[in-house]
């Protein structure tokens, strides 16, 4: 079973790991991922970022088909790993001690 729209089949290997519903889940995944895992995800997904956004923009945000919602979650995860991959070269923010992300409410989707 595929999780993403057929047009994004090459991103499918990352869907089970990175299609996460909340920012807290995405942050936790980032902290438990290796830089190699994040780099591999980034390298495959970043070149398709604009296409993914354009695809999701075809639908009302509050009525996304399930596969488009998961694609949007993948985009959100890509945003979550961008700073570690592009700048820090480590999963945690630099000089952040024990910084944590604890949301009490999430915007949807």
Provide the structure class. mainly alpha
Average residue pLDDT: 90
Task: Calculate Rg over CA atoms.
Answer: 14 Å
Strand fraction equals under 5%
Number of discrete helical segments: 5
Helix content: 40-55%
According to DSSP, the number of beta strands is 0
Outline type: globular
Can you walk through the features of this model?
The protein has five helices and no strands. It has 109 residues and is mainly α. Helix 2 crosses helix 5 (66-88) and helix 3 (35-45) crosses helix 5. The mean pLDDT is 90. The longest helix is centred in the last third of the chain and has 23 residues, at 66-88.
Feature tags:
single chain; 109 residues; 5 helices
Short description:
With 109 residues, the chain is an all-alpha fold. It has helices spanning 12-18, 23-32, 35-45, 49-56, 66-88.
Helices and strands, with pairings:
Elements: H1 12-18, H2 23-32, H3 35-45, H4 49-56, H5 66-88
């Amino acid at each position: 079973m595929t999780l993403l729209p057929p047009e994004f089949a090459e991103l499918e290997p990352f869907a089970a790991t990175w299609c996460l519903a909340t920012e807290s889940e995405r942050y936790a995944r980032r902290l438990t991922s290796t830089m190699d895992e994040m780099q591999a995800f980034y390298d495959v997904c970043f070149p398709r970022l604009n296409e993914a956004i354009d695809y999701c923009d075809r639908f009302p945000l509050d009525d996304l088909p399930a596969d488009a919602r998961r694609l949007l979650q993948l985009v959100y995860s890509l945003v979550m790993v961008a700073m570690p991959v592009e700048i820090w070269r480590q999963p945690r923010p630099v000089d952040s001690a024990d910084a944590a992300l604890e949301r009490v409410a999430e915007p949807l989707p």
